[in-house]
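Repro:
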Amino acid sequence: MGFDYVIYVDILLLLIAANFCCDYLLLWATAAVTLAKTTWRRIFLGAIVGTVHFLLLYLASLHVLPYYGILRFIPTLLGITLAMLLIAFYPVELRQLGNLLLHFLVIGCSSGGAGLATAYMLGTPMEPNTLAGLLVAITTILVIAELGWGVVQHRLLRQVYRLPLHIHFDSSHLRVIGLIDTGNHLTDPLTGVPVIVLEQRMLANLLPRDLAHSIPELANGDMEALQRLVESSKWSSRFRVIPYSSLGEKNGLLIGFRPDAIALELSGHCVPTKDAIIALCNHQLDPAGEYRALVPAIALQGPLNTYVPPVPTPTALGGEQQ
C-alpha cells in the first residue's frame, strides 16, 4: 500500500533556513561562552553540516528517503554534533572538544526547551506556534551568550580572578597580582600581541636606572631619550611603543617591553600564558593596592580554557614553595 506525501517547497525552505540560523547561533554562542577561536566561515560550514542532517532527517520522516531510524539514532546525532564542532573549532584538543560539546548541548537544550514550551503555550498540542517557538529559542541563545553568561563571566573576572602573574626578564623574576580587565583591548602595533599594563615602580629593580628615568620622556616623544634607549643593547630589542586612547587623552603613548616569559599562577601552579607586552604606567592602578597590573582577558584565554586543577595527593597537600 503506497502513501502520497505533498512537500511544499516554500515551507521546506523556511524550515531549512530556520534550522541553519539556529545551528549557526548555537555554534556562535558556544564560541562566545568558551572563548574558543573560530571564524564566521568555520561556523558557517559547521551549521551547513547540521542543516544537511536536518534536511535528510525531515525527508526520511516523510518516507521520501530511507534510514529514518538511523538518522534520529542518538549516536548519529552525537556524531553530527561532534562533526559540527570539529569543523567550527578545528584544531581542537580532545579535552577542549569535550568542553565545547558540553556547552553546545547545554545552550541547545536550554534554547530548545524554551522554544518548545513557548510553541505549545501559544498554540495547541496539534498545532504548536512554531514561529513563536523559533523566536524564543533564538532569543534564548542570544541571552545566554551575551547577557546571561557574559555578565556572570565579567563579574567573575573582575571580582574573583585577581590572579598572581609571574614575569621573567633574563634571570630576573617578578610576581605581581593582576586584575583581569575585559575592557583592555590594547595590542602591540608591531606584533599584534596583547598588552599587560603594569605599574612602573614594580619594575624599578629590573630596569636600568637611567632607562627608568627616561620612560616619561619616551612617552612624550623625546628623541634624545629614545637615542639613549637604543644605545642600551640589552633593552632596545625589547622596547615597544603602544598608542592608546582614553577619557581625557586621545593620542597617548605607553612605553612597553617584551618579557621573556609570562605565567599565570593557578592553584599554586604556574601556567604559561600567551605572548604579551608589558606596558608601564607611572601611577597606581588600584588605590587599595590589591592589584598592580591590568591583564587583558585574551592573554589568559589559553590557561583558563585548558587548565585542569590537579587531583590532590598526600604528597601534594603541603603545596609548592615559590
